Amino acid sequence: MEGGNEYKKGLWTVEEDRILTDYIRVHGKGKWNRVNKVSGLKRSGKSCRLRWMNYLSPSVKRSDFSEEEDDLIIRLHNLLGNRWSLIAGRVPGRTDNQVKNHWNSHLSKKLGVSSKRGKPKAKTYSDSKRAKNNFCTPSSESNSKLQPLPNSESNSKIFGDHEAAAAIDGFDDEMMNIQDHSFSKSKVGFSGMWEATMVSNEKFWFHNDDLNLYSPYLRDPTLDDHYPFQFDNL
DNA sequence: AATGTTCTCAACCGCAATCTT
DNA sequence: TAAGATTGCGGTTGAGAACAT
């Protein structure tokens, strides 16, 4: 149980960092609410988790953002909006907090856009569940590793080689037919080179070469178009 | 040098999702 | 199955640093 005034707040001291690092070396990460009980550290589990994930973890890169990272973040943000965790998952060594701060203090100015840009908020529980299911988030363990395509044995390409890739340069209304399914580029609103791979009768995976992203598209028969959700930030 | 202003980023907060009992 | 605990996310805050006057 977290709460009361028993936990310290504010910046972490070197000694607190050492205690937390020692704890994780012995017990591993996770079970954050056990940290204070075991180590005596006067910090909430939530605070311990944040400190480890954003600062102490050896996988966190502390260097300045490179041009390549900036470029990747800008493209991912264009695609995903303020889904910082998803974006960070595609930028090796960077945390969601780092990416968010970097965007708000540097990139948004560089691009001349408002940093208060809102994410396309899900309106309902099912919407937010769909939104979560619609992108492959790398597990926290394999932070930054690309999600592989689903097992190729179980997949059948919808298109032949030539047809497999569809160049989507703008947001026009061109329709593309995939066997008996059809979708509108404008509703997807992605740019780049996409490849659709059939996983099952109900599920496609899109591969964007430009962004190295794999995204599942789940058909939703309850919607009159076949798009589970739209990217209204585009 | 002193003071005021702006910027950066670590950490907090509230909420929702997920897990555990 | 329900309720409480825990985890994870994105928005926001505020202390300290950097810059301007």
Automatic annotation (TrEMBL):
Residues 4-56, 57-111 form the HTH myb-type domain. Residues 105-156 are annotated as: Disordered. The keyword Transcription applies. GO terms for biological process: cell differentiation. Pfam families: Myb_DNA-binding. InterPro entries: Homeodomain-like_sf, Myb_dom, Myb_TF_plants, SANT/Myb. It comes from the Eukaryota. It comes from Pyrus ussuriensis x Pyrus communis. Keywords: DNA-binding, Nucleus, Repeat, Transcription, Transcription regulation. This is Transcription factor WER-like. It is found in: Nucleus. One of its GO terms (molecular function) is DNA binding. Residues 4-56, 57-107 form the Myb-like domain. Residues 134-156 have a biased composition (Polar residues). CDD domains: SANT. GO terms for cellular component: nucleus. The keyword Glycoprotein does not apply.
